[in-house]
Specification:
Layout (H helix, E strand, L loop, with lengths): L2 E9 L3 E10 L2 E11 L3 E3 L2 E3 L2 H16 L4 E9 L5 E4 L21 H5 L4 H8 L8 H11 L1 H6 L2 E4 H10 L4 E2 H5 L4 E2 L4 E2 L1 H6 L10 E2 L3 E5 L2 H7 L5 E4 L4 H7 L8 E6 L2 E8 L6 H5 L3 E4 L5 E8 L2 H12 L6 H10 L19 H13 L6 H27 L5 E5 L6 H11 L2 E4 L4 H13 L6 H11 L3 E3 L2
Parallel strand pairs: 1-6, 6-14, 9-12, 15-19, 19-20
Antiparallel strand pairs: 1-2, 2-3, 4-5, 7-8, 10-11, 13-14, 15-16, 16-18, 17-18, 20-21
Helix pairs in contact: 10-17, 13-15, 15-16, 17-18
Amino acid sequence: MSKKAYIAIDLGASSGRLILGSMEENKLKLEEIHRFPNEPVYLGNTFYWDFMRIFHEIKKGLKKAAKLPDIDITSIGIDTWGVDGAWLDKKGKLLTNPVHYRDSRTNDIMDDFYSQITDSKLYDITGIQKMSFNTVYQLYYDFKTNEVVKAFGDKWLFMPDLIAYFLTGATFNEYTIASTGALLDATKREYSKELFEALEMPIDKMQKLVMPGTVVGSLTELIQEETGLSNVKVVAVGSHDTASAVAGSPLESENEVYLCCGTWCLMGMELKEPILDEKSKDFNITNEGGVEGTIRYLKNINGLWFLQQLRKVWNERGLNVSFPDIIAAVKNSKSDYAVDAKDDRFLAPLDMEKEIIAYCKETYGVTLSEIGDIAKAAYNGLGILYKEILEAFEEMTGKNINVIRMVGGGIQDQYLCQKVADITGKKVVAGPIEASCIGNMLMQMKALGDIKSLEEGRKIVKDSFEQKEYRQ
């Protein structure tokens, strides 16, 4: 008898993978089918995502899935990073290649943008924190400067919607991913006509919003022929990877925050309604859409980018250090300095080590030279930042937060988990690692009627995956 299974296509900023999920003895089991690097490319002076390669690798993974014995693949869900996407022309052909959120092209249109609408008004409408790569700036840039888009751009699709389109032929914008771009009215949960009119952008280029847990179509005959799969359903899940990660977090009360750990970290709370007051605006907290009609009230903050970039620099120097090597050096360090982890100088430095050394020299008058001391300054800075943001959430929501629920690949760094517990004084519960894939699958299961609610799904998560506690 074939086993019913779901596929999560999960794309991050550096890699992509296809994960197979199935229920065995009332527990969710995961199996990685295919993994591939997601390497952005420079062409001319623009930083692109390599969409052709990404889609090719997805089809390779689907071909592998089709060959698995005794497996009945019933659905596929897609989640990716936020804000980015691409244009289709009137014939449904790919008009533009997706541009990377770290590309600098929007920098030159900011003054013009804010002559049309203030950043304060933008927050009042969308509740999204101000970041230069938000979709609203990308679209404004296209409509102001991109002659190809102005002449031929017909439909805007966010990255997971773009993948779904080429799998099914259906065009839509999934709610959680659309909410990341500062385009929606946070309260009404729909595109803001006021915003599009103020910016003189055509709202009809956006596609209908669909909610997580919606079956949006099935694999086209061409994709079926290419991959060997049958008429498999494609489900719009929480298509923003953080929306899926939060869905896959076994939250148990309103007095918990989640901390999704990866290259970036996102700390937030699951709320029923957005918070759009002046305090929230001043602290630049975002109100993104979540599954089941929730709001992800969160802060997008620096994360393991620090350690990834330090390791890159050290290995380019020939030191050949692993992450366990770095952590061992940190544990032996007697130094206790901390960088300001939210300082823009650490967003995209050419040399992270030099930037940390320079910061500590300027701030403390010391010159750090040992690997452990330099990395510890980064870890301390992250812990202090998380404490600051946690206290802000307590102030904004009026809740006494008692648990930090850490999920994602970053929880494999047990030193970071313990550092967060030590600096914040809160209980940390770490797990599961594969939260985004799990949340992706939960919404597939709900769409197909295999579970009745997110609450039921989270109980499955709690029973299926290890969680480790850390205390001060």
